[in-house]
Protein: Cytosine-specific methyltransferase
Amino acid sequence: MPAHDETNPRPHRKKTYGVKLVRGPFVRLVPHPESTPDTASFLSYAATLRRSGARLAADLFCGAGGLSLGLEDSGYKVVLAVDHDREATETHRHHHGGLTVDWDLGDPAIIQQVADLIRMAGIELLAGGPPCQPFSKAGRSKIRYQVRHGLRDARDRRRNLWQSYLEIIRLARPAAVLMENVPDMVLDREMFILRTMVHELELMGYAVEERAVDTYRYGVPQWRQRLILVALRNRTAFHWPGEVPERTTVMNAIGDLPSVEGGWRPEGGADGWADYERPLTSFQQRMRARVNLADRHKVFDHVTRPVREDDLAAFELMSSNTRYSELPAEVKRYRDDIFDDKYKRLDADGLSRTITAHIAKDGYWYIHPYQNRTLTVREAARLQTFPDTYRFAGPPSAAFRQIGNAVPPMLGEELGRAIIAALDAPVKAPFATQDVARALAHWYVARQRRTFPWLAGVNRWQVIIGETLLDRAHANTVRLIWPLVARWDGPSKILGNEEQFREVARWIGREDRADRILGIARHLVDNPGNLGDDRLRDVPGLTDAIAALAVLAAPLSAETSLAAEGEELPDAEAPGNEEPVLVTKGVLRVAGRFSGEPVEDKNRMTDGRLAVARMIGDDDDARDAHRGLIELANSLCRPEGPACMDCPLHKMCRAAVEPANVLF
Structure:
C-alpha cells in the first residue's frame, strides 16, 4: 500500500457559513515492479517483451495513464510514457511498467531522444494527446509555409507541442499513431492544426482518419466528446469500432459506492478506506474486477470536499433539472444572470456532464444525484472508467485534476482493438485527402460555366457584391447580370456608378440588396483596412457567411495584406490569408454523400467541418478544392437526381460506389 500523510482538519475562520478545511489524504505511490529506471534497462525490457510477442506502445502527454490503461486492456503493452507533470508521472509509473519520465516535450533534444527510443525499442503504436493552443494568423501562415516547403523551426516546438508530436512521428515512423484532443480544435475557422497534421501525416505515407467521438457510445457514463485521429503507416485503412449496445448511466456507474458526507475522511489517511458491500451492475463488476481478495470490502479514495451550510441548503432544494437561477436568493453566492448553471446535480438515470480538470477547483457542476455533496475522487474516477484499483498521486485536488485530464480507459481500449485489427489484416486505403482535394481543384479550375462566377473573382469586393446581390438567383439571371456588375471591382467604383448599379438591381427586383451593398461600399471606402481577414467580419451590413466566403475565395496579395492589416510579414513568408472551412447545407450534403455518414444530421460545427476538411485538405490545392466543393453542391450534386457520373469524385464517392447504402 502507498505511504501517506494523516488528515489534518482545521476550523474555517469565517463563522457565518462555517466549513471545515480538510487537507489530504496525500497519496504517495511506489513504482511498478517492472518500472525501468533508465534508458538502457528500458531498451532491454522492451526487447524481452518483443521476443515474447508483445505489441509495444508509447504514450506521450500521458497524464495519469487513462489511455495507457485502455491500450493495455486492448492488447498493447505500454512501455514508454512521457509527461511534464510530477504527480501524473508518479501515478503512471505506479501502474505501468517500462520507462515513465517527466520530460519537456517542447525541448528539441528531448524530441530527438524520444524518437530514438521509440525506434530502437520497436514500438508499434505511438499514442498521445498534445495540448493545442490557438495561433495568430501570422503564426499559422508561417507554420503552413514551413510545412509545405519542408522547413521546420525548432523554436516553434517549445511553444507548440502538437508540432513536437508530429516531429517525433516523422523521426520514428511508428506503424500506428493515435491522437486525442478536445473537439475545440475543429472550431477554429481554418481548422488549422488538424488540417496541418493530416496533411503532413499523409506526406509521410500514413492513411489518416479523424472523428469527433461521443465517448458514451463506448460505455463511458458521461457526455464527453473527444477528437480522435488515427494514422496507419503504408496507407493502411482504419475502421472505427462499433458502438456498445447500451448507455451506462451515472448510478449504473457509482450506485454501489457507500454514502459519505462532504468532507469525510477515513481513518488511516491514504491507507484508509470506506466499507464496501458488492457491485450491482456489469459496469460496477468491471470496476471491481482487479480488486484483490483482501480488499474486496474496501473502496479507496472515496473522499470529497466539505460542504458549506448555505451550499448544503441549496443542494437540498435541487433536482437534476434545477438551474442555479431558480434557487432562492438566500442560498445563492453567485450572480444568477452570469452563473445560471453554476450548480448542477447529476441525473441518476442519465449521463454525467463531462468530467474535466476544472473539477479540481470547483465541484459544483458535479453534485451527487442523491447525496448533498459534490463527487468523491473515486466517483469521478468511475465516471472516467478508471477501475477501483487505480490510485492517484498527491492530494485530492491533484487526483481530481489527473482524472479530469485523462482519456477514459474504456475509449482507449476500443480504439486499441480497432488499430490491432487493422494492422493484422491490412487493407490499403482507397485514397488520401490530397487525392480528393486535387480532383476537386482541377475540376473547378477547368470548369467553364460556373454557378458562382464571383468565387473566382479578382478581389474580395467582387465576392461581396456577387454573393450579396445574386445569391439564389436563377442561373440565367447570373449569366446576364454578373458581367455588368463585375466591372465595378472596387467600392469606390460602385459608388461612382451608383445610379447605374441601382438600375441593374431594379431589373431583378433586388433594390434592398443594392442599398445594403452601397452601405458596405461606403464603409470600406472610409475604412479600406477592413478588407483584411479579421476585420472583414466587422463591416456593417456584411454577414459572417459572406465575409468568410470572401476570405476563402479571394486571398489578399502580399502588398494588400500589408496595407489592409498594418503588419509586417517575415521574410520568405506567405501572406497571412485564412482558408476558413465553410459549412453550408449544400456543402454538407456533398460531404455526407461522399463519406456515407449523416453529417447533415450531426453537429455541423464538428462532424460537418471534419467531413469538409477531409475533402479539401491543406495543400496548395485547398482553396480551389473548397471552391470546387461549393460549386459541386450547387451544380451536379443536387438535392434530387444528382449527376453522379459527371462528378469529379464519382470513383471515390460512397454514394456513387454504394448507392444502396447511402441516403440522398
Observations:
- Residues 368 and 375 are 6 Å apart (CA to CA).
- Residues 1-18, 154-159, 558-576 have pLDDT under 50 and may be disordered.
